[in-house]
Please model this.
Amino acid sequence: MNAAPTRLAVLVSGGGSNMEAIAQACRAGGVLAGIAELVLVLSSRAGVGALERASRLGVPVSVVPSASFSSREAHEAAVLETLAAARTEVVALAGYMRILSASFLSALGAPVVNIHPVPTYLYQGAHGYEHIWAERARLACCFPTVHRVDAGVDTGEVILYGLPYALGDLESLDALRARGLAEEHTVYPLALRQFLRSGDVPGDSPHARFATLVRSWLTARRAGLDAELHYNGLALPCP
Ligand code: GAR
Model:
């Protein structure tokens, strides 16, 4: 007998395009069908596009506006309560513009996963696309990261990387963001699938192979080897 789908909540603060990709992937025929059920979209801001998207998709929404709370602790307590009421088993951050405290993570008692627009080994924090755009003269490509959330900022264990895309043809920051988000929308559902079904994404899939390549390369570099890694003719940004 198949296990019941995992109860997934997605935390948002903005446009919600990754949330929509996850919601679509949970539907029949999607890579998360039968694996995850999107039970709640929780926003830290009222009036954002993600809420409109979630309503259109028929997903329950809740707004817990950080601006209405006097402290981070009070806001996190309200978020915890809302997630518990939805019987959340896994949390996915998708453009959630709040840093979760260590006490929130331990009180939650459910794993938290996040997507970052760029390799987390290269750059952590907000405005990832702006950073890449400013550095484009010395970078051949970029790719997103899906990782476990720990108490640091974008320091958690990597689950999967998106596949690299060339920066050379992109003529504006908006074009970079659009290209990057397309890759984010592919890799986030795949990474959730791999995480929820521990390694269910076939090891010979391009994403799983690429993640293995990057992991060994980073280990070699940390050990002092000055090696470069190329993928489909693109030199990866060095840490
Ligand atoms: C995405 O690009 C995501 O990678 C980024 O916020 C955007 C949300 O877009 N997250 C971070 O920068 C986290 N460090 P969306 O609301 O359209 O999904």
Remarks:
- The first strand starts at residue 6 and ends at 12.
- The helical segments are 17-25, 49-57, 72-85, 102-108, 128-134, 173-196, 206-222.
- The mean pLDDT is 96.
- Residues 12, 14-18, 50, 94-95, 115-117, 126, 128, 154, 181, 184 surround glycinamide ribonucleotide (CB under 6 Å).
